[in-house]
Design a protein that fits this description.
By secondary structure, this protein is of the alpha/beta class. It contains 8 helices and 13 strands. β1, α1 and β2 form a beta-alpha-beta unit.
């Protein structure tokens, strides 16, 4: 008997999808378990350490994007495949940048999907031969532009004064996952933007990363309380983020987790060049700056 058992966790809030996916994958030598939301799925993963997680994105209690972020923090994360009805090019780019192995859009032929998963696992296309803790972090597993941008951004961290660094570091508890309402808003925004050319220049990566933000003056001295914001995209020189309110200062200090290694934090001060209301949120954008 073949002793190679591939353990898979199937996460979807629709019972019929869970059942159909599980039945098809079980027929292709997968050992399947199912969960109805991200919170339940993460608890199950912590106990069983599945080899593969197949997850939907839109789910109650704890949506799929938050589940993926939690899974990727693991020292040896599982292979992750997104099975979703959401067709959002910006979200797809963000997930691939983070290390998701595949994104499959519903509706699907479940037997074909299961055969595809088995073929990918058996030929080791998900880096199964890598050593401990290297599945996601190994250079080249993410888009090369991620490395280029994050390496370029390291210089801005050198300009953060020690007092501001301590203040930013003391609010790590504020790094909550982006809310479901913001993710849905950005999805609608992305679909609208896809209809017209993007006039902004420079290579950027789409991200959905929470960041700690502290308003500061031109001398990088804090001028207000820390809050949580969400990046929409990043480049080597600046970024665009969303917040529930505007900033009263011209500058804002930011601290967020690296896409390459969640244990590493990036830091920079942004000059607020644009701050405009968009629905229930504010779009805030500008260049990262150095201290004089």
């Amino acid at each position: 008997m073949d002793q190679s058992i591939h353990r898979v966790l199937i996460v979807d809030d629709e019972p019929l999808i869970r059942e159909a996916t599980s039945r098809a994958m079980s027929a292709h030598a997968f050992c399947c378990e199912t969960a109805s939301d991200g919170r339940q799925a993460f608890q199950m993963y912590q106990k069983k350490r599945h080899d593969l997680v197949v997850t939907d994105l839109r789910m109650p209690k704890h949506h799929g994007h938050s589940l993926i972020l939690e899974l990727l923090k693991d020292h040896e994360p599982p292979s992750i495949v997104v099975l979703t009805g959401v067709a959002n090019s910006r979200l797809v780019k963000d997930l691939f940048n983070r290390g998701v192995q595949d994104i499959v859009h519903k509706p699907i032929d479940f037997q074909v999907f299961a055969a595809k998963m088995l073929a990918q696992v058996e030929r080791g296309s998900w880096n199964s031969s890598l050593g401990q803790g290297q599945k996601i972090q190994q250079k080249g597993s993410l888009h090369p532009l991620v490395y280029k941008i994050e390496t370029a951004l390291e210089i801005f961290a050198l300009c953060i004064p020690p007092e501001l660094e301590r203040e930013l570091s003391s609010h790590t508890d504020l790094l909550a996952d982006p809310s479901a309402s913001l993710l849905q808003f950005l999805e609608r925004l992305s679909l609208k933007k896809d209809k017209s050319p993007d006039r902004r220049k420079g290579a950027r990566i789409p991200v959905l990363s929470s960041a700690i933000a502290i308003p500061v003056n031109k001398d990088f001295v804090p001028q207000g309380a820390a809050t949580t914001v969400t990046f929409n995209d990043l480049s080597e020189s600046g970024g665009c983020l969303f917040n529930t309110r505007a900033f009263a200062t011209e500058y804002v200090a930011l601290r967020w987790r690296s896409l390459i290694s969640p244990k590493v934090y990036l830091k920079a001060v942004m000059q607020v060049k644009r701050c405009k209301p968009m629905g229930p949120f504010y779009e805030i954008a500008g260049p990262f700056v150095m201290h004089d």
